[in-house]
Amino acid sequence: MADRSKDPDRPPLKRRRPAKACEPCRNRKENPAHPGNQLRFQLEQSQDTILRLNRSIEELERRLAAASLPEQTQVPPGPADGSSIPKIIPRLRATRDKTKLYGQSHWLHTAEKLQVIGEFGSSIELSWKGAKAEFGETFRNLKSLRRTIKANQSVRLNEPVPDLLGTLPEKSVCDELVGAYFSAVEPVYKVIHYPSFASEYDKFWGEERPHSTRFLMKLVMVLTVGTTFYSRHEDVGRLRQLAQTWIYSAQWWLTGPSARSTNNLFDGLQVSCLLAIAHLTTSLGNSDWISSGALLHRAIGMGLHRDPGMFPMLSIFQKEMRKRLWATVLELTLQAAVDSAMPLLISSDDFDTPLPSNLNDEDIDSQSSNATRARPKEELTDTSIQIVLAKSLPLRITIAKLINGIRETFAYERALKLGAEIVGACHDVAAFFRAQSAATTQGGSLRSTDFHRRLIDLCLRKYMLLLYRPFMIQARRDARFYFARKMCFESCMVMASHARDLNLPTPPSDYMSQLLVRGSGFARGGLSLDVTTTLTMELITQLEEKPASGTLDPAALTGGIPDPLDEMARASRAPVIRSLEHISDQLLQIISLGYPSMKRYGLVAALLSHIKAMEAGQPAHQGLKFSAIAESMKKCQDALVASGAAKTPQESVDTLGPGPLTTASSDDFEFNFADLTFPDTTMGLDPLSLLYFPGLGEASNPDSALWNPTSDPKA
After folding, report:
1. Which Pfam families match (predicted)?
2. With contact defined as beta carbons under 8 Å apart, do 82 and 320 qualify?
3. In 311-411, which ranges are continuous DSSP H helix?
4. % pLDDT > 70, the chain
């Protein structure tokens, strides 16, 4: 390498020195009275003023939005005594993915009046400007330390499903399951924005298969609900095992170590809704009433119970999705409370969120802020069916609070008024589906089908039954309540008619039959204990109303000549008995499929033997009922053994899984078949105790005549 110092053509090297400001520049920076510094200080003060004005404008917008709410959503003012003050308007913190409501009693409403940061910013010293970088670095270090400490303090647990992605079936099966969910369930329970989901779904099956945990959880729960309506019956058993695995994984994601990060997550609320729907449609998962309470609290914590018009910062997409999800949360919470016969933990005074707008999913875009006008109510859209069902929510909430409330008195006049409103709601639903039978959606992704009509009808009829049933029981002693008895009977017959197409062992091909076989709660429709017990009580009451002459045989009462009135009564009972026999046969066939829910079949079998004995003029003694129950249990045992469910344990995912296809539920027997090998069959055992109905047949029960036909129902 040549010596640079000997090259005459190169310029001499210069030593670099730190740049220094000239004396005038230093004086200008250090002199606060310099015009440049004064202008900069005035500009910073102006920026602080603008920030304060922006906050004031946001506060005024919130107050204006609250003042312009519809009349029915506003809280009635207190008495004008001169000391009343307006209620504090809640604050909503909303981002694209998360949302949290700060209620009226939150400390934030006091802290914001102090304006600590705002006042500090307007009077800040110039020396603070140089400390900005140091402050930012300290703040970042503190956040990093906080995350590290919290991570070290957290218990490290293994994922219940380490490879959730590997449990997914092939794409063709997933496509069918997703399609079944969106065609059967999504029109009634709006949870997902279809265009957004479809876009992520296509990316998920792309070459690189990028995915987020949030989307994967939503996908597996959609697949879980879709298994109920899957058409390939040979794969249903395997899919139910996978569905149980997916449910465990979603529950872990919501309540495990990641619970804190999912509490206010919009995707977390959607997964919670899908979990509740999965329990309703598959009978898998935890107690629906307990989990629905957590779902309700999650939704309220995110502010979904308040009118989104109160929060101007929300986009049109966010407002519409909040209204849809709140209607779904209310529906699931209400159904869980009614199905569990537990008090409803919310009333109509606790929320002011309006009904969803009549819009298609394509009318709202998560990336757009343009306002969209709702379509005419006569036009069928993706939300039309949800709106039809949600219109009766206030009425059904009132009924649920009434029937499971703590008040001892229940006015018959009020029941008649509410019953008339339920009848009107049923007529409105029927009119809607008649009007839409030939209509099609205008660009929508969902369709109105007969399944949706029958599902909503089942829902409304159950409230009719529960409203009148207390008076139906009293009608056996008091003829003033005969109308309640009539309405209960008619409602149950309509609900039972929805199971007419179910013809097992032929595999069910329509959505309603598939839901009746695999669902829980009101989704069991005509196969539920609510329907079967009410129909059998009506039949037994009719038989008990015959003249007491020592025998119930119509020919014996008239010297061998049948009484025409008795023949007419027998003919009127025949369709009801055939319906109960059909239900009993289908319940046994369901057990043969490997669903060990045997209480319904055992009770219906015992009640049918009771009714047939009464019709034949034979005393329905305890031995007869015991024999009927014992025979039904033997059939259940044979059906379960033949199904092979007891010999096919669930395949574990790294030792995951409690066992067979379905978890134990309250509908299972509370006894072991081995317990039936008594040395003495006259041990005073009550057949009802075998079905886990302790006390139902005791003499202290005023309605024990259901099991004791010799007692006087009018006593």
Report:
1. Fungal_trans
2. no
3. 316-339, 384-390, 393-403
4. 69
